[in-house]
Amino acid sequence: MNEQRLADLEQRLQRIEDERAIERLIACYGPLVDAGDAESVAALWRADGVYDVDEWLMAGRADIAAMVRSRGHQELIDRGCVHFLGPAVVTVHGDEAVAVCDSTLLVRAETGYRVARGGANYFHLHRAPEPPGQWQIVKRITRRLDGSIDARSLLVDGIAGRIR
Amino acid sequence: MNEQRLADLEQRLQRIEDERAIERLIACYGPLVDAGDAESVAALWRADGVYDVDEWLMAGRADIAAMVRSRGHQELIDRGCVHFLGPAVVTVHGDEAVAVCDSTLLVRAETGYRVARGGANYFHLHRAPEPPGQWQIVKRITRRLDGSIDARSLLVDGIAGRIR
Amino acid sequence: MNEQRLADLEQRLQRIEDERAIERLIACYGPLVDAGDAESVAALWRADGVYDVDEWLMAGRADIAAMVRSRGHQELIDRGCVHFLGPAVVTVHGDEAVAVCDSTLLVRAETGYRVARGGANYFHLHRAPEPPGQWQIVKRITRRLDGSIDARSLLVDGIAGRIR
Questions:
Q1: How far apart are CA C122 and CA C139, in angstroms?
Q2: Which ipTM value was assigned to this complex?
Q3: Max Cα–Cα distance, chain B, nearest Å
Q4: Residues A127, A134: Cα–Cα separation, whole Å
Q5: How far is C-alpha B159 from the chain's CA centre?
Q6: How is C44-70 classified by DSSP, letter by letter?
Q7: A119 vs B82: CB contact, 8 Å cut-off?
Q8: Which of B11, B81, B115 to mutate to test the interface with C (most CBs of C within 10 A)?
Q9: Among partner residues A5, A19, A89, which is closest to B28 by beta-carbon distance?
Q10: A109-164, pLDDT tens digit by residue?
Q11: Which are the contacts of C52, defined by CB distance < 8 A and separation ≥ 6?
């Protein structure tokens, strides 16, 4: 009897820990990319992970670190920018998971900041074998919310927890 | 002795699961409404749930789905919009709960997006008898943060966990 | 055997409760400061807690409450403002903790709202002896994200969970 209750508690707690680890990973993206910490941003992805953002397809950590070090991104940081991600909705399927959130990019202007982008973000993640408990991004797809079907279906798949 | 510790753990875990279910429900609103998924948006509410947003009072799921399908909302989606909700503060009282969060509405403009609204959001939720563990919105009140006492008292009641 | 499993569960759950208490505290800041609730805002800090925000250094709860009651802040509230904080990344070290999040300040304008600020927020918190389970802010440092090294190092220290 107690054995079953213990096992149930362990399973429920593990599920929350998994979801929270993924929420935390996603919440780290904005601060790390705004700080320009290229290695730490890239380490959020699996070694062969993909970041597909509108016109830019990055494959592997070297590509992602290169984006952070790129002239375009460094100019954003120097001017002042906030990559602001909202609370993620996470669905765990064993060692795979899907998450979705909104994002906005604020860029410093003469007075205050302007809202340069508004985006839908879809994440497919997996549980890495090492270190235990670590989740990594397999694929992140980010699309501008501009009325396109593409961005809208990202949101629907993300909330439904569908792996693409 | 172990019986008491098990019961305490179960109760503490249940509380976190309840709060997280409500946080997730609220985090789903933006992606679902920006995707235009009228049925899924409406299903966040109880069958007779109310959505009271400034000049618009919706009563029941059909009203809420009709808002998503309305010309005004479809035009927002076609232009490109982000209903961005912040992290919710949740207070559970047994089978009832109160939550509060900020929100902003970004609408695509010629260059970038403009911030069309900034709002205070108050939620009264209840635990549905079926399916087990599901929470639903009984009443959501959203007010523009424009200096009015109305919007400010929503925030105070929401943080205090007061049911209106 | 069961003793060890119970103790492990209690410890894992306590960690989540601590992190969630801190996430909630941070999520309360925006609604409370936009409502103008000076006492409740100040009570988020330890009695001698510090709030260091760009050009303004507040030391102790009386200073923080005075900021909320100040003419500058009251004018923001009367015009309509949203202090919007994103999801916090929290790292607990026993009775001390570090958290970091992005923030933006929206201020009502002729049409819609303008983005007056975009900031990096670093929090050092401690577990108060009374009431049990309550966390308080020892020091909050907020810096405009304007390309300065100062703001960027706040983000890096916050994500790394480094106490300053």
A1: 8
A2: 0.97
A3: 66
A4: 6
A5: 14
A6: TEEEEEEEEETTEEEESHHHHHHHHHS
A7: yes
A8: B115
A9: A89
A10: 999 999 999 999 999 999 998 888 799 999 999 999 999 999 999 999 999 999 99
A11: C58, C139, C140, C141, C142
